[in-house]
User: Fold this.
Amino acid sequence: MTVSLSKRIARRAGVGLTAVAAMACSVGLTASTASAVPTGLSVNARNIYMGCVYQITATYDSWIQAWFYDNGMVISGSPITPSNGQATIQWTPHSAGTHTLSTLQGSAWELKVNVLEPTLTGSATCGAGPLGFLGS
Assistant:
């Protein structure tokens, strides 16, 4: 059985194009996750009190899902898909002391915060008291 020269060249070209297409597809699929890097992490208050609700906002250079952690434990509501390069999650610290907040999206970004014991009874410490407009 003989195969003409033009058929052999066409077959080799087809195999070569298939390999190149497969490599391009794999590079395209992994490129977005390879460069996924958090670029910032912040909490919406200067003074953070145990039992109060806060917003943690992280910025990213990618759209893939991001996870939020408090002292290595997943914060309820994670993962979140960033919108316009940002993701925000609610966080309620349940203990006083130093907390390491972090976000993970390909690589990690950490922020250490000091959580204080409440100084007033009820929700006044969280900014809901008579001077709540001053914030926490």
Summary: Residues 25-34, 129-136 have pLDDT under 50 and may be disordered.
